[in-house]
Each structure stands twice: as C-alpha cells, then as structure tokens.
Design goal:
The protein contains eight helices and four strands. By secondary structure, the chain is of the alpha+beta class. Helix 5 packs antiparallel against helix 6. It comes from Olsenella profusa F0195.
Length: 161
C-alpha cells in the first residue's frame, strides 16, 4: 500500500486507491465528487503542481508518465485522500471489495502511525546528531579559516628560517 506525507498528513493518491478498489481513477473521483459533502478538505484535496512534482520525484514517475499528464491519460492533478477520506470511500463505493480494501488501508495507516510513534525517539536522536554535526562542521570550518594563514607552513617566512 502506498501512503505518502503531503501537507504533514498521511495520504493515499486517487490512482493507488482506484487500483486497490478495482475501479478506474476517474470513477473513484466521480463518486467522491457526487458526494462532496462527505469529503471536506481534511478528507480529500487536490495536489498542487509543486506537490505533484515532489511526489513524482519521490516515487519515480517517469518523464513519459509526466508527458501523458500533459497530452493524454491523466488530465488533472491527482487527489489525495486522508485516512478519513479513505474510510469514507467505502461508504461511497458500496462494494464488498471497497469494504475489504478499506479495512486493509486503515490497518496500513495504523501500522504507519505505530511505526512513527515507536521510532519517534530514534528520529529525535538522529536529528540531534545531525544538528551537532552541523555545529561541529561550522566550528571546524571557522577554525580552519582563522588558523591556516597563521601556521606559516607554506609562507615565505617559514622558508627563510
């Protein structure tokens, strides 16, 4: 299952959900659009061009796929569904497959939440190490710039003595 972080929120893209539900992406989005009142902005939102480009780079969509976006195939920016939006899709699509897939997707979101929670301390420690490393690098760079000319290893005065 492919979930991504967009706008600091775990989401799944309409095309991934359509594949899981066994429907066309356009049919999935039409069903959501017919039931717009069930999909507020925090359930479903359309990606911006920048967000789409960022995801495209992350997940390795080829330039051929990007050309299809402009000349055929996908004509609109993808929609992203949050955990609540995914749950709402099962009510909108009303099929056994939709219910089964929705349960699997919800489990995926729960697993991701547990993974993040279980590893939060490790992520924080990595961040602290990175910050210390950057501070050390700045200190070392500043020291080396100040001290190198004073060493006189390659200066004329050092050779004369």
């Amino acid at each position: 299952m492919c979930s991504y972080t967009v706008r600091d929120t775990q989401v799944m893209l309409d095309s991934d959900l359509a594949r899981l539900y066994g429907v066309e992406t356009s049919a999935l989005n039409r069903a959501a659009k017919r039931n717009e009142n069930r999909f507020p902005e925090d359930f479903r939102f359309q990606l911006t061009r920048d967000e789409h480009e960022d995801l495209r780079c992350q997940i390795g969509i080829s330039s051929d796929d990007l050309r299809k976006f402009a000349t055929g195939g996908r004509r609109y920016l993808p929609y992203a569904y949050t955990e609540q939006g995914v749950a709402m899709l099962s009510a909108v699509l009303r099929s056994d497959t939709a219910v089964r897939v929705s349960v699997q997707i919800m489990k995926s979101f729960v697993e991701m939440r547990h993974f993040i929670a279980d590893n939060a301390a490790m992520f924080e420690r990595i961040r602290a190490v990175e910050l210390r490393q950057l501070a050390y690098q700045r200190t070392t760079d500043a020291w080396s710039v100040r001290k190198t000319p004073l060493w006189g290893v390659f200066s004329d005065k050092a050779r004369a003595s």
